[in-house]
Amino acid sequence: MTIRPLSSEETLPYDLLLLADPSVKMVGKYIFASSVYVAVFAEQIVGILVLFPIDKNLIEIKNIAVLETHQGKGIGKKLLAFAFSEAKEKGFQDIQIGTANSSIGQLALYQKMGFEMDSILKSFFIYNYPEPMYENEILVRDMVVLKKALGLR
Ligand code: COA
Prior knowledge:
This protein is α+β, with helices and mostly antiparallel strands and 153 residues long. The chain has helices spanning 14-20, 24-30, 75-89, 104-112, 124-128, and strands spanning 2-5, 35-41, 44-53, 58-66, 94-100, 116-121, 134-135, 138-139, 143-149. The strands form two sheets. A seven-stranded mixed beta sheet has the order 1-2-3-4-5-9-6, sandwiched between helices. Bound molecules: coenzyme A.
């Protein structure tokens, strides 16, 4: 499995982007100002990572997804580790990621990878998405923002 930048000639893999963020409109708000990387396995794009600089010190993982057929095999962890080294190399001090209150597996994964809960954007998903969404039988309501120091200080 290799991770490489998506070239500007390649089509954006919306199948993957929409796994992490079900709104084309919301993806459109960040995708063109972001760096996009893909995980490739057996010549197939199986994962995506989208990095968006917030300011000179802080970068955000705006989207991370792995094809359902390839989940649970460590690709997500490799994409996160790649994000850390890429962000560090570019001189960012901190990296953040937002996920839903209902995203139990993602909250576990991000904390295993060293992220700590930082803030909560109350009712973010209620305000920004047209229909109520449920995950793990929980209403998708709040955005939990997690941060990790990249160790440059
Ligand atoms: N409790 C504890 N740990 C859990 C868990 C739970 N409920 N659910 C998942 N995990 C852990 C796994 O145990 C594993 O850790 P381990 O290797 O220590 O066992 C880890 O999370 C998953 O690691 P990995 O296999 O590298 O992840 P992945 O390749 O499946 O990718 C996602 C993770 C989130 C990118 C992938 O599941 C995905 O694309 N989901 C849909 C899109 C999405 O939700 N994106 C994120 C939006 S914020």
